[in-house]
Design goal:
The chain is α/β, with parallel strands linked by helices. About 35% of the residues lie in helices and about 20% in strands. It has 2 domains: about 5-275, 3-Layer(aba) Sandwich (Rossmann fold), CATH 3.40.50; about 290-370, Alpha-Beta Plaits, CATH 3.30.70.20. About 50% of the residues are buried.
Protein backbone atom coordinates (compact mmCIF):
# COMPACT_ATOMS: atom_id res chain seq x y z
CA UNK A 1 0.00 0.00 0.00
CA UNK A 2 1.65 3.21 -1.21
CA UNK A 3 0.47 6.23 0.77
CA UNK A 4 3.22 8.65 -0.33
CA UNK A 5 2.11 12.11 -1.49
CA UNK A 6 4.02 15.27 -2.39
CA UNK A 7 2.33 18.67 -2.03
CA UNK A 8 3.82 21.72 -3.74
CA UNK A 9 2.49 25.16 -2.84
CA UNK A 10 1.62 27.04 -6.03
CA UNK A 11 -0.31 30.29 -5.75
CA UNK A 12 -1.00 30.77 -9.46
CA UNK A 13 -0.37 29.52 -12.97
CA UNK A 14 2.81 31.45 -13.70
CA UNK A 15 4.64 29.01 -16.00
CA UNK A 16 7.98 29.30 -14.23
CA UNK A 17 6.48 28.62 -10.80
CA UNK A 18 4.43 25.70 -12.11
CA UNK A 19 7.50 24.16 -13.73
CA UNK A 20 9.43 24.52 -10.49
CA UNK A 21 6.65 22.74 -8.57
CA UNK A 22 6.38 19.98 -11.19
CA UNK A 23 10.13 19.42 -11.07
CA UNK A 24 10.03 19.12 -7.27
CA UNK A 25 7.23 16.56 -7.46
CA UNK A 26 8.97 14.26 -9.91
CA UNK A 27 12.29 14.61 -8.07
CA UNK A 28 10.62 13.45 -4.86
CA UNK A 29 9.64 10.19 -6.59
CA UNK A 30 12.99 9.47 -8.23
CA UNK A 31 12.97 11.77 -11.23
CA UNK A 32 11.56 11.56 -14.74
CA UNK A 33 14.29 9.12 -15.76
CA UNK A 34 12.86 6.50 -13.41
CA UNK A 35 9.57 6.49 -15.31
CA UNK A 36 11.26 6.42 -18.71
CA UNK A 37 12.93 3.13 -17.83
CA UNK A 38 9.66 1.57 -18.99
CA UNK A 39 9.92 3.25 -22.40
CA UNK A 40 9.92 6.60 -24.15
CA UNK A 41 6.29 6.72 -25.30
CA UNK A 42 4.53 8.93 -22.72
CA UNK A 43 0.79 9.62 -22.57
CA UNK A 44 -0.41 12.64 -20.58
CA UNK A 45 -4.06 12.35 -19.56
CA UNK A 46 -5.52 15.73 -18.46
CA UNK A 47 -9.12 16.46 -17.50
CA UNK A 48 -10.80 17.88 -20.62
CA UNK A 49 -14.38 17.35 -19.50
CA UNK A 50 -15.77 19.77 -22.07
CA UNK A 51 -14.72 22.63 -24.30
CA UNK A 52 -14.30 25.38 -21.72
CA UNK A 53 -11.56 27.95 -21.16
CA UNK A 54 -9.12 27.28 -18.28
CA UNK A 55 -10.37 30.17 -16.11
CA UNK A 56 -13.59 28.22 -15.54
CA UNK A 57 -11.66 25.71 -13.38
CA UNK A 58 -13.47 22.81 -15.08
CA UNK A 59 -10.43 21.40 -16.83
CA UNK A 60 -6.75 20.83 -16.05
CA UNK A 61 -4.88 24.07 -16.55
CA UNK A 62 -2.62 24.11 -19.63
CA UNK A 63 0.28 25.52 -17.60
CA UNK A 64 0.40 22.28 -15.62
CA UNK A 65 0.04 20.07 -18.69
CA UNK A 66 2.68 22.06 -20.54
CA UNK A 67 5.12 21.89 -17.63
CA UNK A 68 4.81 18.11 -17.29
CA UNK A 69 5.01 17.54 -21.05
CA UNK A 70 8.08 19.77 -21.38
CA UNK A 71 9.86 17.92 -18.58
CA UNK A 72 9.43 14.60 -20.38
CA UNK A 73 10.26 15.99 -23.81
CA UNK A 74 13.52 17.42 -22.48
CA UNK A 75 14.31 13.95 -21.11
CA UNK A 76 13.94 12.46 -24.60
CA UNK A 77 10.36 11.15 -24.46
CA UNK A 78 7.76 11.23 -27.24
CA UNK A 79 4.79 12.85 -25.47
CA UNK A 80 1.12 12.67 -26.50
CA UNK A 81 -1.67 14.59 -24.76
CA UNK A 82 -4.94 12.67 -24.91
CA UNK A 83 -8.36 12.66 -23.30
CA UNK A 84 -11.94 11.92 -24.27
CA UNK A 85 -14.56 14.46 -23.15
CA UNK A 86 -18.06 13.42 -22.19
CA UNK A 87 -19.66 13.97 -25.58
CA UNK A 88 -18.64 12.93 -29.10
CA UNK A 89 -14.98 12.05 -29.53
CA UNK A 90 -13.78 12.42 -33.10
CA UNK A 91 -11.75 14.52 -35.52
CA UNK A 92 -14.57 17.07 -35.83
CA UNK A 93 -15.10 17.79 -32.13
CA UNK A 94 -11.65 17.51 -30.56
CA UNK A 95 -9.90 20.49 -32.21
CA UNK A 96 -12.35 22.86 -30.50
CA UNK A 97 -11.82 21.11 -27.15
CA UNK A 98 -8.04 21.34 -27.50
CA UNK A 99 -8.22 24.99 -28.50
CA UNK A 100 -10.60 26.25 -25.80
CA UNK A 101 -8.98 24.21 -23.02
CA UNK A 102 -5.55 25.59 -23.89
CA UNK A 103 -4.07 22.26 -24.94
CA UNK A 104 -2.94 23.59 -28.33
CA UNK A 105 -0.74 26.13 -26.58
CA UNK A 106 0.46 23.58 -24.01
CA UNK A 107 1.48 21.12 -26.73
CA UNK A 108 3.23 23.80 -28.77
CA UNK A 109 5.09 25.08 -25.71
CA UNK A 110 6.30 21.61 -24.72
CA UNK A 111 6.85 20.32 -28.28
CA UNK A 112 4.41 17.51 -27.54
CA UNK A 113 1.64 16.25 -29.81
CA UNK A 114 -2.13 16.26 -29.41
CA UNK A 115 -3.82 12.92 -29.94
CA UNK A 116 -5.51 12.43 -33.32
CA UNK A 117 -6.07 8.67 -33.02
CA UNK A 118 -9.73 8.22 -32.11
CA UNK A 119 -9.77 4.42 -32.14
CA UNK A 120 -10.14 2.24 -29.06
CA UNK A 121 -9.30 -1.25 -27.83
CA UNK A 122 -11.11 -3.72 -25.58
CA UNK A 123 -9.26 -4.61 -22.39
CA UNK A 124 -10.36 -7.29 -19.93
CA UNK A 125 -9.72 -6.82 -16.23
CA UNK A 126 -10.43 -8.87 -13.10
CA UNK A 127 -11.19 -6.39 -10.34
CA UNK A 128 -14.06 -6.12 -7.90
CA UNK A 129 -15.77 -8.10 -10.66
CA UNK A 130 -14.75 -9.27 -14.16
CA UNK A 131 -15.06 -6.38 -16.60
CA UNK A 132 -14.35 -5.33 -20.15
CA UNK A 133 -13.23 -1.76 -20.74
CA UNK A 134 -13.11 0.03 -24.06
CA UNK A 135 -10.04 2.27 -23.78
CA UNK A 136 -8.42 4.88 -26.01
CA UNK A 137 -5.80 3.24 -28.21
CA UNK A 138 -3.08 5.78 -27.25
CA UNK A 139 -3.59 4.85 -23.59
CA UNK A 140 -3.20 1.15 -24.37
CA UNK A 141 -0.05 1.71 -26.43
CA UNK A 142 1.73 4.10 -24.05
CA UNK A 143 4.77 2.97 -22.09
CA UNK A 144 4.11 5.57 -19.38
CA UNK A 145 0.77 7.16 -18.38
CA UNK A 146 0.86 10.46 -16.50
CA UNK A 147 -2.56 11.28 -15.07
CA UNK A 148 -3.28 14.99 -14.41
CA UNK A 149 -6.68 15.56 -12.81
CA UNK A 150 -8.46 18.61 -11.41
CA UNK A 151 -9.43 19.14 -7.76
CA UNK A 152 -13.25 19.31 -7.81
CA UNK A 153 -16.35 18.23 -5.97
CA UNK A 154 -18.74 16.02 -7.92
CA UNK A 155 -22.53 15.68 -7.93
CA UNK A 156 -22.43 11.89 -8.31
CA UNK A 157 -19.11 10.67 -6.89
CA UNK A 158 -18.61 13.37 -4.17
CA UNK A 159 -15.05 14.14 -5.32
CA UNK A 160 -13.11 13.98 -8.57
CA UNK A 161 -9.36 14.23 -8.78
CA UNK A 162 -6.96 11.54 -9.98
CA UNK A 163 -9.13 8.39 -9.97
CA UNK A 164 -12.29 9.76 -11.59
CA UNK A 165 -10.14 11.51 -14.20
CA UNK A 166 -9.36 8.12 -15.72
CA UNK A 167 -12.98 7.78 -16.84
CA UNK A 168 -11.77 9.93 -19.73
CA UNK A 169 -9.77 6.96 -21.03
CA UNK A 170 -13.12 5.52 -22.15
CA UNK A 171 -13.99 6.94 -25.58
CA UNK A 172 -16.77 9.46 -26.12
CA UNK A 173 -20.30 8.18 -25.84
CA UNK A 174 -19.08 4.81 -24.54
CA UNK A 175 -19.08 6.58 -21.17
CA UNK A 176 -22.82 7.15 -21.44
CA UNK A 177 -23.29 3.46 -22.19
CA UNK A 178 -21.37 2.57 -19.03
CA UNK A 179 -23.60 4.89 -16.98
CA UNK A 180 -26.61 3.11 -18.46
CA UNK A 181 -25.26 -0.33 -17.51
CA UNK A 182 -24.27 0.87 -14.04
CA UNK A 183 -27.08 3.12 -12.78
CA UNK A 184 -26.57 4.47 -9.30
CA UNK A 185 -23.61 5.84 -7.42
CA UNK A 186 -22.30 2.66 -5.82
CA UNK A 187 -22.08 0.46 -8.92
CA UNK A 188 -20.53 3.31 -10.90
CA UNK A 189 -17.90 4.01 -8.23
CA UNK A 190 -16.94 0.33 -7.97
CA UNK A 191 -16.33 0.44 -11.70
CA UNK A 192 -14.12 3.54 -11.30
CA UNK A 193 -11.92 1.66 -8.84
CA UNK A 194 -11.48 -1.19 -11.32
CA UNK A 195 -10.91 1.19 -14.24
CA UNK A 196 -8.18 3.00 -12.32
CA UNK A 197 -6.42 -0.27 -11.57
CA UNK A 198 -6.84 -1.41 -15.17
CA UNK A 199 -5.26 1.73 -16.64
CA UNK A 200 -2.62 1.75 -13.89
CA UNK A 201 -1.25 5.30 -14.28
CA UNK A 202 2.43 5.56 -13.45
CA UNK A 203 2.11 8.98 -11.84
CA UNK A 204 -0.85 11.12 -10.84
CA UNK A 205 -0.99 14.87 -10.35
CA UNK A 206 -3.96 16.89 -9.11
CA UNK A 207 -4.24 20.50 -10.20
CA UNK A 208 -5.52 22.26 -7.10
CA UNK A 209 -4.07 25.68 -7.77
CA UNK A 210 -7.65 26.65 -8.56
CA UNK A 211 -10.20 23.88 -8.12
CA UNK A 212 -13.98 23.80 -7.99
CA UNK A 213 -16.44 23.26 -5.17
CA UNK A 214 -20.22 23.12 -4.92
CA UNK A 215 -21.98 21.80 -7.99
CA UNK A 216 -18.93 20.21 -9.60
CA UNK A 217 -17.54 18.93 -11.84
CA UNK A 218 -18.61 21.72 -14.20
CA UNK A 219 -21.31 23.85 -12.55
CA UNK A 220 -19.59 24.86 -9.31
CA UNK A 221 -17.54 27.87 -8.31
CA UNK A 222 -13.77 28.18 -8.81
CA UNK A 223 -11.91 27.78 -5.50
CA UNK A 224 -8.26 28.65 -4.99
CA UNK A 225 -6.45 25.95 -3.01
CA UNK A 226 -2.94 26.92 -4.11
CA UNK A 227 -1.51 23.42 -4.33
CA UNK A 228 -0.31 20.79 -6.79
CA UNK A 229 -0.42 17.22 -5.47
CA UNK A 230 1.46 14.21 -6.78
CA UNK A 231 1.54 10.50 -6.00
CA UNK A 232 2.33 7.23 -7.70
CA UNK A 233 -0.88 5.89 -6.14
CA UNK A 234 -3.88 7.85 -7.53
CA UNK A 235 -6.03 6.77 -4.58
CA UNK A 236 -3.54 8.37 -2.20
CA UNK A 237 -3.53 11.58 -4.26
CA UNK A 238 -7.33 11.79 -3.94
CA UNK A 239 -7.23 11.16 -0.21
CA UNK A 240 -4.70 13.96 0.29
CA UNK A 241 -6.76 16.29 -1.89
CA UNK A 242 -9.96 15.65 0.08
CA UNK A 243 -8.06 16.25 3.32
CA UNK A 244 -6.74 19.60 2.07
CA UNK A 245 -10.19 20.59 0.78
CA UNK A 246 -11.76 19.86 4.15
CA UNK A 247 -13.97 17.19 2.61
CA UNK A 248 -14.84 13.91 4.35
CA UNK A 249 -13.15 10.95 2.63
CA UNK A 250 -15.61 8.48 4.15
CA UNK A 251 -18.34 10.13 2.06
CA UNK A 252 -16.50 9.22 -1.14
CA UNK A 253 -17.60 5.76 -2.35
CA UNK A 254 -14.48 5.51 -4.53
CA UNK A 255 -12.25 6.03 -1.51
CA UNK A 256 -14.29 3.65 0.67
CA UNK A 257 -14.09 0.86 -1.91
CA UNK A 258 -10.37 1.46 -2.46
CA UNK A 259 -9.60 1.47 1.26
CA UNK A 260 -11.59 -1.75 1.73
CA UNK A 261 -9.41 -3.34 -0.99
CA UNK A 262 -6.23 -2.13 0.80
CA UNK A 263 -5.37 0.07 -2.15
CA UNK A 264 -4.90 3.11 0.11
CA UNK A 265 -5.04 3.96 3.79
CA UNK A 266 -8.48 4.86 5.09
CA UNK A 267 -7.51 7.89 7.17
CA UNK A 268 -5.68 11.06 6.05
CA UNK A 269 -3.53 10.83 9.19
CA UNK A 270 -1.72 7.88 7.61
CA UNK A 271 -0.64 9.75 4.48
CA UNK A 272 3.15 9.66 4.12
CA UNK A 273 4.08 13.19 3.12
CA UNK A 274 7.26 13.49 1.05
CA UNK A 275 6.99 17.26 1.42
CA UNK A 276 5.92 19.48 4.25
CA UNK A 277 2.31 18.46 5.03
CA UNK A 278 -0.16 20.88 3.46
CA UNK A 279 -2.66 22.23 5.97
CA UNK A 280 -6.39 21.98 5.26
CA UNK A 281 -7.92 25.15 3.88
CA UNK A 282 -9.32 27.63 6.36
CA UNK A 283 -12.54 27.68 4.34
CA UNK A 284 -13.36 24.08 3.32
CA UNK A 285 -14.70 23.23 -0.12
CA UNK A 286 -18.48 23.14 -0.22
CA UNK A 287 -19.58 19.64 -1.26
CA UNK A 288 -22.26 19.09 -3.83
CA UNK A 289 -25.78 18.65 -2.44
CA UNK A 290 -25.74 15.62 -0.17
CA UNK A 291 -29.39 14.53 0.04
CA UNK A 292 -29.31 12.50 -3.16
CA UNK A 293 -26.08 10.76 -2.15
CA UNK A 294 -27.49 9.74 1.21
CA UNK A 295 -30.58 8.31 -0.50
CA UNK A 296 -28.36 6.52 -3.01
CA UNK A 297 -26.34 4.97 -0.18
CA UNK A 298 -29.51 3.46 1.30
CA UNK A 299 -30.85 2.32 -2.09
CA UNK A 300 -27.61 0.52 -2.95
CA UNK A 301 -28.18 -1.94 -0.08
CA UNK A 302 -31.60 -3.04 -1.37
CA UNK A 303 -32.42 -5.86 -3.84
CA UNK A 304 -31.63 -4.98 -7.44
CA UNK A 305 -35.20 -5.17 -8.75
CA UNK A 306 -36.43 -2.31 -6.57
CA UNK A 307 -33.42 0.00 -6.74
CA UNK A 308 -34.36 1.90 -9.88
CA UNK A 309 -38.02 2.52 -8.93
CA UNK A 310 -36.91 3.87 -5.55
CA UNK A 311 -34.14 5.89 -7.15
CA UNK A 312 -36.75 7.73 -9.23
CA UNK A 313 -38.62 8.67 -6.05
CA UNK A 314 -35.83 9.39 -3.57
CA UNK A 315 -32.94 10.68 -5.68
CA UNK A 316 -33.27 14.13 -7.22
CA UNK A 317 -33.62 14.30 -10.98
CA UNK A 318 -31.99 17.13 -12.89
CA UNK A 319 -34.13 19.97 -14.12
CA UNK A 320 -33.56 22.48 -16.86
CA UNK A 321 -33.45 26.19 -16.03
CA UNK A 322 -34.24 29.21 -18.17
CA UNK A 323 -30.56 29.44 -19.15
CA UNK A 324 -31.03 26.53 -21.58
CA UNK A 325 -29.91 27.40 -25.10
CA UNK A 326 -31.40 24.31 -26.71
CA UNK A 327 -28.02 23.08 -28.00
CA UNK A 328 -28.83 19.42 -27.32
CA UNK A 329 -25.54 18.56 -25.62
CA UNK A 330 -27.45 17.09 -22.66
CA UNK A 331 -29.67 14.94 -24.88
CA UNK A 332 -26.66 13.66 -26.78
CA UNK A 333 -24.89 12.69 -23.53
CA UNK A 334 -27.89 11.15 -21.75
CA UNK A 335 -27.37 7.35 -21.47
CA UNK A 336 -31.07 6.73 -20.73
CA UNK A 337 -32.33 8.85 -23.63
CA UNK A 338 -34.44 10.73 -21.10
CA UNK A 339 -33.90 14.22 -22.56
CA UNK A 340 -35.60 15.77 -25.55
CA UNK A 341 -35.21 19.24 -27.05
CA UNK A 342 -38.36 20.96 -28.26
CA UNK A 343 -38.94 24.59 -29.05
CA UNK A 344 -35.37 25.49 -28.26
CA UNK A 345 -35.37 24.04 -24.74
CA UNK A 346 -34.43 20.69 -23.22
CA UNK A 347 -36.82 18.65 -21.08
CA UNK A 348 -35.99 15.74 -18.72
CA UNK A 349 -38.29 12.73 -18.40
CA UNK A 350 -37.93 11.90 -14.68
CA UNK A 351 -39.35 8.40 -15.19
CA UNK A 352 -36.55 7.41 -17.57
CA UNK A 353 -33.74 9.39 -15.91
CA UNK A 354 -31.17 7.18 -14.11
CA UNK A 355 -29.70 10.06 -12.03
CA UNK A 356 -26.20 9.86 -13.47
CA UNK A 357 -26.05 13.66 -13.92
CA UNK A 358 -24.13 13.47 -17.21
CA UNK A 359 -26.39 16.27 -18.45
CA UNK A 360 -25.29 18.48 -15.55
CA UNK A 361 -21.61 17.74 -16.23
CA UNK A 362 -21.73 18.47 -19.93
CA UNK A 363 -24.08 21.44 -20.23
CA UNK A 364 -21.93 24.21 -21.78
CA UNK A 365 -24.06 27.02 -20.30
CA UNK A 366 -24.69 25.50 -16.83
CA UNK A 367 -28.44 25.33 -17.37
CA UNK A 368 -28.96 22.03 -15.51
CA UNK A 369 -29.70 22.05 -11.78
CA UNK A 370 -30.09 19.17 -9.33
Amino acid sequence: MDNRVFAAACAGYDQRRVEEAVGQMFAAFGGVEKFLQKGKKVLIKPNLLLAREPDGATTTHPAVVGAVAALFVRAGAAVTIADSPGGPYNALTMPRVYRLCGMEKAAKYAKARLNRDFSSQTVRFEGLQPREFELLTPVCRADVVINIGKMKTHMLTYFTGAVKNLFGTVPGLQKAAMHSRLPGQQAFCRMLVDLCRCVGPDFSIIDGVVGMDGRGPSGGRPRRAGVLLAAENPFAADLAAMYICGLQPERSPVHSFAAAQKLVCAEPERIEWLSEPFRPLDEPFLPASGRSRRSESVISRLPGRIRQPLRRVLVAAPHVTERCAGCGACAQACPAHAITVRGGRASVDGRRCIRCYCCHELCPVRAIRI
